[in-house]
Design goal:
Chain lengths: 194, 319
Protein backbone atom coordinates (compact mmCIF):
# COMPACT_ATOMS: atom_id res chain seq x y z
CA UNK A 1 0.00 0.00 0.00
CA UNK A 2 1.35 3.37 -0.96
CA UNK A 3 2.00 6.25 1.41
CA UNK A 4 -0.98 8.22 0.13
CA UNK A 5 -3.32 5.24 0.52
CA UNK A 6 -2.18 4.80 4.11
CA UNK A 7 -2.67 8.47 4.83
CA UNK A 8 -6.14 8.43 3.35
CA UNK A 9 -7.17 5.08 4.79
CA UNK A 10 -7.79 3.42 1.47
CA UNK A 11 -7.16 -0.23 0.76
CA UNK A 12 -7.19 -1.42 -2.78
CA UNK A 13 -8.65 -4.92 -2.85
CA UNK A 14 -5.83 -7.27 -3.83
CA UNK A 15 -6.25 -8.77 -7.28
CA UNK A 16 -5.38 -12.46 -7.61
CA UNK A 17 -2.35 -13.75 -9.47
CA UNK A 18 -3.50 -16.64 -11.65
CA UNK A 19 -0.61 -17.64 -13.92
CA UNK A 20 1.60 -19.61 -11.55
CA UNK A 21 -1.14 -22.19 -11.15
CA UNK A 22 -0.17 -23.70 -14.50
CA UNK A 23 3.13 -24.91 -13.06
CA UNK A 24 1.21 -27.62 -11.17
CA UNK A 25 1.09 -30.47 -13.73
CA UNK A 26 4.86 -30.58 -14.17
CA UNK A 27 5.41 -30.15 -10.44
CA UNK A 28 3.12 -33.15 -9.84
CA UNK A 29 5.50 -35.32 -11.88
CA UNK A 30 8.53 -34.09 -9.94
CA UNK A 31 6.69 -34.68 -6.66
CA UNK A 32 5.86 -38.27 -7.56
CA UNK A 33 9.46 -38.98 -8.52
CA UNK A 34 10.82 -37.47 -5.31
CA UNK A 35 8.32 -38.57 -2.66
CA UNK A 36 5.92 -41.10 -4.19
CA UNK A 37 2.93 -38.81 -3.67
CA UNK A 38 0.54 -38.93 -6.61
CA UNK A 39 -2.36 -36.61 -7.45
CA UNK A 40 -5.73 -37.94 -6.39
CA UNK A 41 -7.30 -36.09 -9.31
CA UNK A 42 -9.27 -33.88 -7.01
CA UNK A 43 -8.79 -30.17 -6.55
CA UNK A 44 -10.77 -27.20 -5.34
CA UNK A 45 -11.06 -23.44 -5.49
CA UNK A 46 -11.94 -21.57 -2.31
CA UNK A 47 -13.45 -18.10 -2.34
CA UNK A 48 -15.49 -15.80 -0.14
CA UNK A 49 -18.92 -15.41 -1.67
CA UNK A 50 -20.26 -11.87 -1.84
CA UNK A 51 -23.77 -11.44 -0.51
CA UNK A 52 -26.48 -10.74 -3.02
CA UNK A 53 -27.84 -12.18 -6.23
CA UNK A 54 -25.16 -10.95 -8.65
CA UNK A 55 -22.47 -13.15 -7.14
CA UNK A 56 -24.85 -16.09 -6.87
CA UNK A 57 -25.57 -15.81 -10.60
CA UNK A 58 -21.87 -15.82 -11.46
CA UNK A 59 -21.32 -18.83 -9.23
CA UNK A 60 -24.21 -20.72 -10.83
CA UNK A 61 -22.83 -19.97 -14.31
CA UNK A 62 -19.43 -21.41 -13.36
CA UNK A 63 -21.07 -24.48 -11.92
CA UNK A 64 -23.01 -25.03 -15.12
CA UNK A 65 -19.95 -24.46 -17.28
CA UNK A 66 -17.86 -27.01 -15.39
CA UNK A 67 -20.59 -29.62 -15.43
CA UNK A 68 -20.99 -29.47 -19.22
CA UNK A 69 -18.03 -31.79 -19.75
CA UNK A 70 -18.79 -34.07 -16.81
CA UNK A 71 -18.97 -37.76 -17.68
CA UNK A 72 -17.28 -37.32 -21.05
CA UNK A 73 -13.74 -38.76 -21.43
CA UNK A 74 -11.36 -36.42 -19.63
CA UNK A 75 -14.24 -34.37 -18.35
CA UNK A 76 -14.22 -35.64 -14.78
CA UNK A 77 -17.11 -35.91 -12.35
CA UNK A 78 -19.74 -33.22 -11.80
CA UNK A 79 -18.35 -30.52 -9.51
CA UNK A 80 -19.35 -30.25 -5.89
CA UNK A 81 -20.04 -26.94 -4.18
CA UNK A 82 -19.73 -26.80 -0.41
CA UNK A 83 -19.56 -24.11 2.22
CA UNK A 84 -17.15 -24.45 5.13
CA UNK A 85 -17.59 -23.36 8.73
CA UNK A 86 -15.78 -20.08 8.04
CA UNK A 87 -18.35 -19.12 5.42
CA UNK A 88 -16.05 -19.73 2.45
CA UNK A 89 -17.31 -21.55 -0.63
CA UNK A 90 -15.37 -24.46 -2.15
CA UNK A 91 -15.88 -25.68 -5.69
CA UNK A 92 -14.44 -29.20 -5.90
CA UNK A 93 -13.52 -30.70 -9.24
CA UNK A 94 -12.71 -34.41 -9.51
CA UNK A 95 -10.82 -36.03 -12.36
CA UNK A 96 -8.84 -39.21 -12.95
CA UNK A 97 -5.50 -39.14 -11.16
CA UNK A 98 -3.55 -38.73 -14.40
CA UNK A 99 -5.59 -35.74 -15.59
CA UNK A 100 -3.86 -32.99 -13.63
CA UNK A 101 -3.81 -30.77 -16.69
CA UNK A 102 -7.60 -31.02 -17.11
CA UNK A 103 -8.04 -30.41 -13.39
CA UNK A 104 -5.99 -27.23 -13.50
CA UNK A 105 -7.98 -26.07 -16.53
CA UNK A 106 -11.19 -26.55 -14.54
CA UNK A 107 -9.82 -24.64 -11.57
CA UNK A 108 -8.68 -21.87 -13.87
CA UNK A 109 -12.18 -21.63 -15.34
CA UNK A 110 -13.50 -20.76 -11.87
CA UNK A 111 -10.77 -18.15 -11.38
CA UNK A 112 -11.30 -16.45 -14.67
CA UNK A 113 -15.09 -16.39 -14.31
CA UNK A 114 -14.77 -14.59 -10.96
CA UNK A 115 -12.08 -12.23 -12.24
CA UNK A 116 -14.03 -11.42 -15.44
CA UNK A 117 -17.04 -10.45 -13.38
CA UNK A 118 -15.00 -8.21 -11.13
CA UNK A 119 -14.92 -10.58 -8.15
CA UNK A 120 -11.21 -11.43 -8.37
CA UNK A 121 -10.43 -10.12 -4.87
CA UNK A 122 -12.78 -12.73 -3.41
CA UNK A 123 -10.48 -15.65 -4.32
CA UNK A 124 -8.69 -17.19 -1.32
CA UNK A 125 -6.80 -20.28 -2.42
CA UNK A 126 -6.77 -23.32 -4.62
CA UNK A 127 -5.98 -26.77 -3.38
CA UNK A 128 -4.78 -29.87 -5.25
CA UNK A 129 -4.76 -33.15 -3.35
CA UNK A 130 -2.02 -35.81 -3.32
CA UNK A 131 -1.73 -39.20 -1.66
CA UNK A 132 0.79 -42.04 -1.48
CA UNK A 133 0.61 -45.78 -0.94
CA UNK A 134 1.08 -45.32 2.80
CA UNK A 135 -2.07 -43.16 2.90
CA UNK A 136 -0.09 -40.03 3.61
CA UNK A 137 -2.17 -37.07 2.52
CA UNK A 138 -0.92 -33.77 1.19
CA UNK A 139 -2.38 -30.73 -0.45
CA UNK A 140 -0.54 -28.13 -2.44
CA UNK A 141 -2.26 -24.87 -1.62
CA UNK A 142 -1.98 -21.96 -4.02
CA UNK A 143 -2.42 -18.52 -2.46
CA UNK A 144 -4.00 -16.28 -5.07
CA UNK A 145 -2.97 -12.98 -3.55
CA UNK A 146 0.68 -13.99 -3.18
CA UNK A 147 0.99 -16.16 -6.28
CA UNK A 148 2.79 -18.76 -4.16
CA UNK A 149 2.28 -22.37 -3.09
CA UNK A 150 2.62 -24.08 0.24
CA UNK A 151 2.17 -27.71 1.31
CA UNK A 152 -0.40 -28.79 3.85
CA UNK A 153 -0.22 -32.32 5.25
CA UNK A 154 -2.94 -33.05 7.81
CA UNK A 155 -2.64 -35.85 10.34
CA UNK A 156 -5.39 -37.25 12.52
CA UNK A 157 -6.59 -34.91 15.28
CA UNK A 158 -5.82 -31.56 13.64
CA UNK A 159 -2.09 -31.98 13.63
CA UNK A 160 0.21 -31.25 10.72
CA UNK A 161 2.96 -33.43 9.34
CA UNK A 162 5.51 -30.63 9.25
CA UNK A 163 8.33 -32.97 8.23
CA UNK A 164 6.48 -34.04 5.10
CA UNK A 165 5.55 -30.44 4.32
CA UNK A 166 9.15 -29.31 4.50
CA UNK A 167 10.28 -32.35 2.51
CA UNK A 168 7.85 -31.40 -0.26
CA UNK A 169 9.04 -27.80 -0.22
CA UNK A 170 12.59 -29.06 -0.60
CA UNK A 171 11.67 -31.37 -3.45
CA UNK A 172 9.62 -28.83 -5.40
CA UNK A 173 11.48 -25.65 -4.55
CA UNK A 174 12.75 -25.24 -8.11
CA UNK A 175 9.51 -26.16 -9.88
CA UNK A 176 7.02 -23.96 -8.03
CA UNK A 177 7.18 -20.59 -6.36
CA UNK A 178 6.91 -21.51 -2.69
CA UNK A 179 5.71 -19.21 0.05
CA UNK A 180 8.86 -18.32 2.00
CA UNK A 181 7.02 -16.81 4.96
CA UNK A 182 6.08 -19.91 6.99
CA UNK A 183 3.54 -17.94 9.06
CA UNK A 184 1.38 -17.77 5.96
CA UNK A 185 1.13 -21.56 5.67
CA UNK A 186 -2.24 -21.54 7.38
CA UNK A 187 -4.00 -24.85 7.99
CA UNK A 188 -7.10 -25.73 5.98
CA UNK A 189 -8.57 -28.43 8.20
CA UNK A 190 -11.40 -30.37 6.65
CA UNK A 191 -10.95 -28.84 3.23
CA UNK A 192 -13.26 -30.62 0.80
CA UNK A 193 -11.50 -32.84 -1.72
CA UNK A 194 -8.48 -33.47 0.48
CA UNK B 1 -12.64 -3.26 -15.15
CA UNK B 2 -12.99 -4.71 -11.70
CA UNK B 3 -12.33 -1.35 -10.14
CA UNK B 4 -15.78 0.09 -9.67
CA UNK B 5 -17.15 -2.78 -7.63
CA UNK B 6 -14.59 -1.97 -4.94
CA UNK B 7 -14.50 1.76 -5.60
CA UNK B 8 -12.82 4.05 -3.09
CA UNK B 9 -15.09 6.69 -1.61
CA UNK B 10 -14.01 9.99 -3.16
CA UNK B 11 -16.08 12.07 -0.74
CA UNK B 12 -14.52 10.39 2.28
CA UNK B 13 -11.05 10.86 0.80
CA UNK B 14 -11.69 14.56 0.24
CA UNK B 15 -13.09 15.10 3.74
CA UNK B 16 -10.16 13.27 5.30
CA UNK B 17 -7.68 15.29 3.24
CA UNK B 18 -9.30 18.56 4.30
CA UNK B 19 -9.23 17.52 7.97
CA UNK B 20 -5.56 16.62 7.78
CA UNK B 21 -4.81 19.83 5.93
CA UNK B 22 -6.53 21.83 8.67
CA UNK B 23 -4.59 19.93 11.33
CA UNK B 24 -1.40 20.77 9.47
CA UNK B 25 -2.47 24.38 9.20
CA UNK B 26 -3.15 24.61 12.94
CA UNK B 27 0.24 23.04 13.53
CA UNK B 28 2.06 25.55 11.32
CA UNK B 29 0.16 28.47 12.86
CA UNK B 30 0.97 27.18 16.32
CA UNK B 31 4.68 26.84 15.62
CA UNK B 32 4.73 30.28 13.97
CA UNK B 33 3.00 31.90 16.92
CA UNK B 34 5.23 30.24 19.48
CA UNK B 35 8.32 31.24 17.53
CA UNK B 36 6.89 34.74 17.24
CA UNK B 37 6.31 34.92 20.96
CA UNK B 38 9.72 33.52 21.70
CA UNK B 39 11.51 35.99 19.45
CA UNK B 40 10.11 38.57 21.81
CA UNK B 41 12.73 36.56 23.69
CA UNK B 42 12.42 35.09 27.02
CA UNK B 43 14.54 32.39 28.46
CA UNK B 44 11.86 31.12 30.83
CA UNK B 45 9.22 31.03 28.06
CA UNK B 46 11.61 29.26 25.70
CA UNK B 47 12.45 26.61 28.25
CA UNK B 48 8.76 25.97 28.93
CA UNK B 49 8.13 25.35 25.23
CA UNK B 50 11.17 23.13 24.96
CA UNK B 51 10.21 21.05 27.98
CA UNK B 52 6.65 20.64 26.67
CA UNK B 53 8.00 19.51 23.27
CA UNK B 54 10.34 16.98 24.84
CA UNK B 55 7.76 15.63 27.27
CA UNK B 56 4.88 15.62 24.80
CA UNK B 57 6.91 14.17 21.96
CA UNK B 58 8.55 11.65 24.25
CA UNK B 59 5.32 10.39 25.75
CA UNK B 60 3.65 10.19 22.32
CA UNK B 61 6.48 8.12 20.87
CA UNK B 62 6.73 5.94 23.93
CA UNK B 63 3.01 5.20 23.75
CA UNK B 64 3.35 4.50 20.02
CA UNK B 65 6.35 2.23 20.54
CA UNK B 66 4.80 0.26 23.38
CA UNK B 67 1.20 0.57 22.18
CA UNK B 68 0.75 -3.20 21.79
CA UNK B 69 2.05 -4.01 25.28
CA UNK B 70 0.26 -1.09 26.95
CA UNK B 71 -3.08 -1.94 25.34
CA UNK B 72 -2.83 -5.64 26.19
CA UNK B 73 -1.89 -4.88 29.79
CA UNK B 74 -4.68 -2.33 30.17
CA UNK B 75 -7.28 -4.70 28.78
CA UNK B 76 -5.89 -7.59 30.82
CA UNK B 77 -5.74 -9.53 27.57
CA UNK B 78 -3.86 -12.74 26.98
CA UNK B 79 -2.21 -13.76 23.71
CA UNK B 80 -3.76 -17.01 22.48
CA UNK B 81 -2.12 -19.68 20.34
CA UNK B 82 -3.84 -21.35 17.36
CA UNK B 83 -4.37 -24.46 19.52
CA UNK B 84 -6.21 -22.46 22.18
CA UNK B 85 -8.49 -20.55 19.82
CA UNK B 86 -8.58 -22.39 16.49
CA UNK B 87 -11.71 -20.70 15.13
CA UNK B 88 -10.46 -17.19 15.87
CA UNK B 89 -7.07 -17.95 14.33
CA UNK B 90 -8.78 -19.59 11.36
CA UNK B 91 -10.75 -16.43 10.59
CA UNK B 92 -7.68 -14.23 10.98
CA UNK B 93 -5.55 -16.57 8.81
CA UNK B 94 -8.06 -16.43 6.00
CA UNK B 95 -8.52 -12.67 6.19
CA UNK B 96 -4.74 -12.21 6.08
CA UNK B 97 -4.50 -14.45 3.01
CA UNK B 98 -7.33 -12.55 1.31
CA UNK B 99 -5.81 -9.16 2.05
CA UNK B 100 -2.18 -10.27 1.58
CA UNK B 101 -1.28 -9.03 5.05
CA UNK B 102 1.07 -10.26 7.73
CA UNK B 103 -0.71 -12.08 10.51
CA UNK B 104 -1.08 -10.04 13.69
CA UNK B 105 -0.76 -11.46 17.18
CA UNK B 106 -4.16 -12.60 18.41
CA UNK B 107 -5.31 -11.95 21.98
CA UNK B 108 -8.46 -12.41 24.04
CA UNK B 109 -9.54 -10.14 26.89
CA UNK B 110 -11.66 -11.70 29.64
CA UNK B 111 -14.27 -8.92 29.57
CA UNK B 112 -17.97 -9.34 29.04
CA UNK B 113 -18.29 -6.03 27.22
CA UNK B 114 -18.44 -6.82 23.48
CA UNK B 115 -15.47 -5.05 21.95
CA UNK B 116 -12.37 -5.45 19.83
CA UNK B 117 -9.29 -3.40 19.14
CA UNK B 118 -6.14 -3.50 17.07
CA UNK B 119 -2.95 -1.74 18.01
CA UNK B 120 0.81 -1.83 17.53
CA UNK B 121 3.23 0.59 15.94
CA UNK B 122 3.42 -1.29 12.62
CA UNK B 123 2.12 -4.42 10.95
CA UNK B 124 4.99 -6.50 12.39
CA UNK B 125 3.98 -5.58 15.94
CA UNK B 126 0.24 -5.52 15.37
CA UNK B 127 -2.01 -7.06 18.01
CA UNK B 128 -5.62 -7.95 17.43
CA UNK B 129 -7.67 -8.30 20.58
CA UNK B 130 -11.27 -9.37 21.08
CA UNK B 131 -13.23 -9.70 24.30
CA UNK B 132 -15.01 -12.81 25.50
CA UNK B 133 -18.25 -10.83 25.34
CA UNK B 134 -17.76 -10.28 21.62
CA UNK B 135 -16.96 -13.92 20.95
CA UNK B 136 -20.08 -14.96 22.82
CA UNK B 137 -22.50 -12.54 21.20
CA UNK B 138 -21.50 -12.59 17.53
CA UNK B 139 -21.84 -15.40 15.03
CA UNK B 140 -19.05 -16.39 12.65
CA UNK B 141 -19.76 -13.95 9.84
CA UNK B 142 -20.30 -11.03 12.22
CA UNK B 143 -17.08 -11.80 14.07
CA UNK B 144 -15.28 -11.96 10.72
CA UNK B 145 -16.63 -8.50 9.88
CA UNK B 146 -15.39 -7.03 13.16
CA UNK B 147 -11.96 -8.67 12.76
CA UNK B 148 -11.73 -7.39 9.18
CA UNK B 149 -12.55 -3.89 10.48
CA UNK B 150 -9.76 -4.09 13.06
CA UNK B 151 -7.31 -5.49 10.52
CA UNK B 152 -8.15 -2.58 8.22
CA UNK B 153 -7.01 -0.29 11.03
CA UNK B 154 -3.70 -2.16 10.98
CA UNK B 155 -3.46 -1.92 7.18
CA UNK B 156 -4.25 1.81 7.28
CA UNK B 157 -1.60 2.28 10.02
CA UNK B 158 -4.19 4.11 12.10
CA UNK B 159 -2.21 3.88 15.34
CA UNK B 160 0.66 5.76 13.71
CA UNK B 161 -1.53 8.27 11.91
CA UNK B 162 -3.53 9.11 15.03
CA UNK B 163 -0.39 9.38 17.18
CA UNK B 164 1.16 11.88 14.78
CA UNK B 165 -2.14 13.72 14.54
CA UNK B 166 -2.51 14.02 18.30
CA UNK B 167 1.11 15.03 18.89
CA UNK B 168 0.17 18.68 18.48
CA UNK B 169 -2.70 18.45 20.92
CA UNK B 170 -0.49 16.74 23.51
CA UNK B 171 2.20 19.42 23.26
CA UNK B 172 -0.36 22.23 23.30
CA UNK B 173 -2.12 20.70 26.30
CA UNK B 174 1.17 20.37 28.19
CA UNK B 175 2.06 23.98 27.35
CA UNK B 176 -1.15 25.24 28.88
CA UNK B 177 -0.41 23.34 32.06
CA UNK B 178 3.27 24.31 32.24
CA UNK B 179 2.54 27.96 31.52
CA UNK B 180 -0.14 27.91 34.21
CA UNK B 181 2.15 26.41 36.83
CA UNK B 182 5.09 28.65 35.96
CA UNK B 183 2.68 31.54 36.34
CA UNK B 184 1.71 30.30 39.77
CA UNK B 185 5.10 29.38 41.10
CA UNK B 186 7.63 31.07 38.87
CA UNK B 187 6.03 34.49 38.82
CA UNK B 188 6.28 34.97 42.56
CA UNK B 189 9.19 37.41 42.38
CA UNK B 190 12.07 35.00 42.81
CA UNK B 191 13.66 36.47 39.71
CA UNK B 192 14.56 40.08 39.03
CA UNK B 193 11.70 42.53 38.75
CA UNK B 194 12.42 43.61 35.20
CA UNK B 195 12.60 40.04 33.97
CA UNK B 196 9.37 39.18 35.68
CA UNK B 197 7.30 41.94 34.18
CA UNK B 198 8.26 40.87 30.68
CA UNK B 199 7.62 37.22 31.39
CA UNK B 200 4.04 37.64 32.50
CA UNK B 201 2.39 38.70 29.22
CA UNK B 202 4.50 36.25 27.22
CA UNK B 203 3.55 33.29 29.35
CA UNK B 204 -0.06 34.40 29.30
CA UNK B 205 0.06 34.62 25.50
CA UNK B 206 1.54 31.14 25.21
CA UNK B 207 -1.18 29.86 27.49
CA UNK B 208 -3.99 31.40 25.44
CA UNK B 209 -2.56 30.31 22.10
CA UNK B 210 -1.97 26.79 23.37
CA UNK B 211 -5.46 26.53 24.79
CA UNK B 212 -7.03 27.59 21.50
CA UNK B 213 -4.78 25.26 19.51
CA UNK B 214 -5.59 22.43 21.88
CA UNK B 215 -9.34 22.94 21.46
CA UNK B 216 -9.21 23.16 17.66
CA UNK B 217 -6.87 20.22 17.20
CA UNK B 218 -8.91 18.14 19.64
CA UNK B 219 -12.02 18.58 17.50
CA UNK B 220 -10.08 17.91 14.29
CA UNK B 221 -8.56 14.74 15.72
CA UNK B 222 -11.99 13.47 16.70
CA UNK B 223 -13.21 14.23 13.19
CA UNK B 224 -10.24 12.42 11.66
CA UNK B 225 -10.86 9.45 13.93
CA UNK B 226 -14.47 9.21 12.75
CA UNK B 227 -13.36 9.27 9.11
CA UNK B 228 -10.83 6.53 9.77
CA UNK B 229 -13.53 4.39 11.36
CA UNK B 230 -15.64 4.80 8.24
CA UNK B 231 -12.63 3.94 6.08
CA UNK B 232 -12.03 0.77 8.13
CA UNK B 233 -15.70 -0.21 7.81
CA UNK B 234 -15.46 0.24 4.06
CA UNK B 235 -12.31 -1.84 3.66
CA UNK B 236 -13.72 -4.55 5.92
CA UNK B 237 -16.96 -4.84 3.96
CA UNK B 238 -15.09 -5.01 0.68
CA UNK B 239 -12.65 -7.58 2.00
CA UNK B 240 -15.27 -9.99 3.28
CA UNK B 241 -17.90 -9.17 0.67
CA UNK B 242 -20.46 -9.25 3.49
CA UNK B 243 -21.49 -5.69 4.40
CA UNK B 244 -24.68 -6.97 6.01
CA UNK B 245 -22.80 -9.17 8.48
CA UNK B 246 -20.81 -6.12 9.56
CA UNK B 247 -24.00 -4.09 9.85
CA UNK B 248 -25.55 -6.71 12.06
CA UNK B 249 -22.40 -6.86 14.20
CA UNK B 250 -22.45 -3.07 14.61
CA UNK B 251 -26.08 -3.12 15.62
CA UNK B 252 -25.46 -5.90 18.13
CA UNK B 253 -22.35 -4.37 19.64
CA UNK B 254 -23.86 -0.94 20.05
CA UNK B 255 -26.67 -2.57 21.96
CA UNK B 256 -29.26 -1.20 19.59
CA UNK B 257 -30.59 -4.64 18.77
CA UNK B 258 -33.50 -3.89 21.06
CA UNK B 259 -34.47 -1.07 18.74
CA UNK B 260 -35.47 -3.55 16.06
CA UNK B 261 -38.78 -4.81 17.34
CA UNK B 262 -39.15 -8.57 17.42
CA UNK B 263 -42.91 -8.32 17.46
CA UNK B 264 -44.96 -7.78 14.35
CA UNK B 265 -45.56 -4.05 14.13
CA UNK B 266 -49.20 -4.53 13.24
CA UNK B 267 -49.81 -6.58 16.35
CA UNK B 268 -48.95 -3.76 18.71
CA UNK B 269 -49.44 -0.91 16.34
CA UNK B 270 -50.52 2.00 18.54
CA UNK B 271 -47.43 1.77 20.67
CA UNK B 272 -44.81 0.31 18.42
CA UNK B 273 -45.43 2.14 15.18
CA UNK B 274 -43.16 4.96 16.25
CA UNK B 275 -40.64 2.82 18.06
CA UNK B 276 -37.59 3.74 15.94
CA UNK B 277 -38.11 7.26 14.84
CA UNK B 278 -39.02 9.17 18.01
CA UNK B 279 -36.26 7.48 19.96
CA UNK B 280 -33.79 8.66 17.35
CA UNK B 281 -35.30 12.11 16.97
CA UNK B 282 -35.09 12.78 20.67
CA UNK B 283 -31.42 12.04 20.56
CA UNK B 284 -30.87 14.30 17.58
CA UNK B 285 -31.35 17.40 19.71
CA UNK B 286 -28.03 16.75 21.39
CA UNK B 287 -26.65 14.83 18.48
CA UNK B 288 -24.63 17.63 16.88
CA UNK B 289 -22.64 18.33 20.01
CA UNK B 290 -22.06 14.74 21.04
CA UNK B 291 -21.06 13.69 17.52
CA UNK B 292 -18.46 16.45 17.40
CA UNK B 293 -16.76 14.97 20.44
CA UNK B 294 -17.09 11.29 19.68
CA UNK B 295 -14.34 9.14 18.20
CA UNK B 296 -16.76 6.92 16.29
CA UNK B 297 -19.35 7.91 13.71
CA UNK B 298 -22.97 7.32 14.57
CA UNK B 299 -24.45 3.91 13.94
CA UNK B 300 -26.80 5.40 11.35
CA UNK B 301 -23.92 6.86 9.38
CA UNK B 302 -21.95 3.64 9.43
CA UNK B 303 -24.92 1.57 8.31
CA UNK B 304 -25.71 4.06 5.58
CA UNK B 305 -22.20 3.67 4.19
CA UNK B 306 -22.41 -0.11 4.32
CA UNK B 307 -25.71 0.01 2.45
CA UNK B 308 -23.92 1.86 -0.31
CA UNK B 309 -21.12 -0.71 -0.46
CA UNK B 310 -23.71 -3.46 -0.58
CA UNK B 311 -25.18 -1.85 -3.70
CA UNK B 312 -21.73 -1.38 -5.27
CA UNK B 313 -20.81 -5.03 -4.71
CA UNK B 314 -24.12 -6.13 -6.18
CA UNK B 315 -23.80 -4.22 -9.44
CA UNK B 316 -24.67 -6.54 -12.29
CA UNK B 317 -21.82 -5.45 -14.55
CA UNK B 318 -18.96 -3.34 -13.23
CA UNK B 319 -17.87 -0.70 -15.70
Amino acid sequence: MGFLDTLLGRTKPVQPKLDDLFGLPSAAITLEAATGLTPTGSGSVCFRAVEGKTFKDVQDDVHELLDMDAGKPGGGLPVEVTKDTYGYTWIVSSHMSDETQALVTDLHAVNSALVDNGFGPQLLCTLVAFRDSNERRLALVYLYKRGTFYPFAPLAGERRNNALELEVKGALGDDLKFEQDLSRWFPVWGAPGL
Amino acid sequence: MARTRYAPDRGLTVRMTVTMFLLGLVFVAFVALIIGIMTAVHASAASIVLIALIFGGGSAFASLFYSDKIALATAGARVVSPQEAPELHGIVDRLCAMADMEKPTVAIAPTDLPNAFATGRNSKHAVLCVTNGLLRRLDGAELEGVLAHEMSHVAHKDVQVMTYASLLAIVAGLLVRFAFYSELFGGGGRRGGNNNQNAFPIILAIMVVSAVVYAISFLLIRLLSRYRELAADRSAAQLTGQPSALKSALVKVSGAMSQIPNQDLRAAEPLNAFFFAPALNLRNKQATLSTMFSTHPSLEKRIEQLDKIQRELGQVSPE
